[in-house]
Amino acid sequence: MKNTSQKLLSLLLCAITIASPLFSRTAAAQETKEEKKQKERQEKLSKKEDERREKEGKLRAKESKTYNTLKEFAEDLYASDPEFRDNVDAEYRSRQEREARYAYEINVTRKSEWAMPETEGARLKVRRLLYDNPWIQDYVNRVGQRLVPEGSGKFYAFRVTYEPIPKSYTLSTGTVLISSGMISMLDSEAQLAYVLAHEIAHVHKDHAKVDVMMEVGQAEYNKRQERKRAKWTAIVAAAGAAVGGVAKGADGILAGAAAGYIGGAVGTRVAISDMKTSEWDEFQENEADDFALKTAIEKYYDVQEVPKLYARISEFARFDRRVELGFLGRRDRLRERKEQCEKLLEGSLKAQYADLVRSGKLLGTTGEYNLIMAELKRDNGIEAYNYDMFDMAKRNLQQAVSIRSDDALASYYYGKILNLVGRTKEDQDQAQFYLARAIKLDTRQTIPDIQLQRAMILMEQSDSANKTLALQALKDYIVSFQRKRVEEVRQDRTLPPNLETIYDHMLVLGDRIWSAPLPDYLRINLVSTDPGPAERPRTVQQQ
Q1: Quick check: 400 and 417 in contact, CB under 8 A?
Q2: What are the residue ranges spanned by the domains of the chain?
C-alpha cells in the first residue's frame, strides 16, 4: 500500500512537472494577447490625439490668419485715415471713462452696507466687492508692481476681489483685478506672478485699444469686401455671359451670367463670413500667456510652476464647472494653454531656465506667501461654502487649518463643511474635533455659531452625557450671540469696518486676547429687526 501511494505521488509530481511549462506558455500567450490589445488601444488613442491636434492646428491657423488680416487692416487705416482714427479714439475714451467709473465704485464702497428692502424693518447686508484685508491687498500689489516692465510709462494697481469664482481681468486704465477664488487655487508666489504678469500684458500691449480699433475697423473692412464682391461678381457674370453667348445664344447668355454671379458671390462670401467672427480674445490671451512666462522668468520665478497651475485648475474643474468661468475659460483652452506653456519651457525658454537653476536664484514661494494664504484660503473657503462650491470650500479650509492651527474661524468652518458633506461617523467625529478646537481658540468670543453647530451634532448622539453638553452649548450660544450682537452694533457705529481682519493680523503678531474696550457709560441704541416690544431700543452699559 505504501509503495502504491509513493508511486502515485511520483506520477503526480511528474505530471505537474511536465504540465508546468505548458501552463506557463499558455499564461504567457494569454498575457501577450492582453498586452497586444492594450498596445492596440494605446495606438488608437494616440492616433486620435494626433488627429485632434492636427485638426485644431489647422483651425487655429485659419483663425489666426483671419485675426491678423483684420488687425493689420485696422492698424493701417488708423495710421492713414484721420476720420477713422478720430472714431477709434472717441470709442476708446468712452470705454476708459466707463472703466474708470467702475474702478471708482469698487474702491469707495465700504466693507459692508445695509440695504433696505421693501419689507418693513428688514435689512440686508451687502458685501464689498474688494476683499477687505489690507495685508493681502498690499502683498498682491507689491508682487504685481515688481513685474511691470522697466521703463513702462503706464501705472498699474493690483486689487483682490472677494469672490470664489476664479477670475482675473484688467481695466484699460491699468487696474488689475484678481479674485480670492483665483488666488486660493495657487500653490506658490511663482504662480501668482504668472497670473498677474498675464494681466499686465493686456495693458502693456494695448489690447483694449486694439479691440476698439478692430471693432470699428470691421465694419469698414466688410464694406470694402462688399464692394470687391460686387465688382468681381459683375466681371465674372459678364465673362460667363460672353462664354454662354458664344456657346448657346441668348439662353446661354442668361445661364452664363447667372452662373457667373453665383460663382462670384460664393467666392467672396467666405471671406466676409470669416471676418464677422470677432473672437479676438483667444489670440490676445495667447500673447499674454507668452508675455507672462517671459516676464516671470526674467524676475527669477520658477516657471515650471505654471503647468502645475493649469493641472490643478483642471482638477478643480472636474468637481465644479464654475471654476472654468473665469481666468481659463473653456476646458479645451485649458489644455491648449498648458501645452503651449510646456512647448515654450522645452523650447525657447529652456536655456534661460537652466541658467537660473544653476545660479540658485530661482524663486518658487516664500514664507510670507504661505502665511498670508492661510487667511485668504480661509476667507475664500467660507465664501465658497456660501456659494455651495463644496469641493473648493473643503480644500481651502483644510489648507487654512494645516497652515494656521490657531485660527478659530478656519477650524469652525472646516468642522462645519465636514459635518455638512460628511457621510460617515468618522467624518462627524472629525467635524466635532474641529468645532471643539474652534471653541477653545475663540478667545475673543466672536463666533457664537460654533456652539450652535456643536449642539446639533451632540443632539444626534443618544447618551445622556452628550445631551447635557448639547444643552450647555445651546445656552452658551444664546449668551455669545447676544454679546456678538452688541459688538456688531458698536462696530457699525464706532469701530473700523474691517475689525475682524485687524484681529487676525494681531493674532499673527501673537496677541489673541485683546479686544477693543467699551468706553465708560457708552450708550448704544440697538436697531431692531423686529418691531415687537422685546426688541425695543435698550441701553448697554459696561460692567
Answers
A1: no
A2: 86-207, 411-535
Give Cβ neighbours of residue 458 (< 8 Å, ≥ 6 apart): 466, 467, 469, 470, 473
CB contact at 8 A, 128 and 109: yes
3-state SS string over 133-157?
Answer: CHHHHHHHHHHHHHHCCCCCCCCCE
Secondary structure class of 532 (helix, strand, coil): coil
Closest CA to 299 of 481, 72, 146: 146
Cα–Cα distance for residue pair 375/410, rounded to 1 Å: 8
- Angstrom distance (rounded) from CA 272 to CA 228: 11
Per-residue CA distances from 443 to 228, 501, 511 (Å):
78, 15, 10
Question: Could you tell me the pLDDT band of residue 446, with boundaries at 50, 70 and 90?
Answer: confident
Assign 484 a pLDDT band (cuts: 50, 70, 90).
confident
User: Rounded distance, CA 79 to CA 230, Å?
Assistant: 27
User: In what helix (H) or strand (E) does residue 88 lie, and over which residues does it extend?
Assistant: helix 82-108
pTM for the model stands at 0.72
CA–CA separation, 321 and 323 (whole Å): 5
Q: Which CATH number does 86-207 carry?
A: 3.30.2010
Question: What DSSP character marks residue 287?
Answer: H
Instruction: Write out the H or E segment, with its range, that includes residue 161.
Output: strand 157-161
